[in-house]
Design goal:
About 80% of the residues lie in helices and about 0% in strands. By secondary structure, the protein is mostly helical. It is globular, with a radius of gyration of 13 Å.
Length: about 80
């Protein structure tokens, strides 16, 4: 179920947005932040799946890194993705 959550609920939409860049850049940023907040909430409320949530958060951070142009912000997201 969690793999489907990621594949169909988050990853598929991120891929659509990624293929439509640069027009979808603002939407992609907004969706990454929303998805990150939701998964962080799941991380806090369902501790039995901690490793799964950490993996999802890392994947989102890698998407965020991929679209970042500023080195300082890129470094911040690189640190998040490495956790």
């Amino acid at each position: 179920m969690l793999a489907r959550f990621w594949k169909h609920g988050i990853h598929a939409f991120l891929e659509v947005l990624r293929h439509r860049r640069p027009e979808s850049q603002d939407y992609m940023l907004a969706f990454i932040y929303l998805a990150y907040q939701m998964i962080a909430l799941l991380f806090e409320t369902i501790p039995s799946l901690t490793n799964t949530w950490i993996e999802c958060l890392g994947d989102l951070a890698r998407y965020r890194m991929a679209i970042e142009k500023e080195e300082e912000v890129f470094a911040t997201w690189r640190g998040v993705a490495a956790r």
